[in-house]
Amino acid sequence: MKFRKVGILLVLLSLWGGTMLFADAATQKVRVIINGINQDDGGIIVDGKTYLPLRQIASSMQAIVEWDNQSKQATVNKPNVHMFLFRNNNVFGNVSKGFEGSFKVFAQIDNLKADITAVKISIFDPGGNETVIQSGAVNPKGDNFWYATEDTEYKFESVGKYPILFYVKLKGLDEWQAVSEKQISSLAP
């Protein structure tokens, strides 16, 4: 009787192990790297097709994702956002460490296929601390518009990259989605 129980247990374990090996062979994990950054959630390969997490990929590429739960449809849109930085009416992109002064951000947005209600422009220091340059409600009358900030006082206290991000807020949602990035380099004197 004991031999029979052990035999059944061995058969069940063999079947389970074989199933797990087959499942592992049928689906493989995929490591996803976007612009040199390893993504938290990778993808999988099933039957020779690669599946990736849409919201994470779109967010990494600064695209807008809209989900319609009724039709089970995801729409991805990447608007063109060109930001220009002005200091005393001169375009700039590099500053010396310790520079303190004012600048403006001018953004040209086109190919906007989503309904947005607000925009926000922020600068981040090399440590990741955010300073909002300006935000406000918008009501674009088409797929393109321009947005300019007032003069912003800022001090570049350390050497490094200072990303400036352009965000939009979709109609009906309360979260910001980054759709463009520009960088200011703060260099050693």
Automatic annotation (TrEMBL):
UniProt keyword Chaperone present: no
Pfam family membership, one: Cu_amine_oxidN1
Signal peptide annotation: 1-25
Keyword NADP in annotation: no
Keywords of this entry: Signal
Domain Copper amine oxidase-like N-terminal: 38-91
Name this protein carries in UniProt: Copper amine oxidase-like N-terminal domain-containing protein
Species in which this protein is naturally found: Paenibacillus harenae
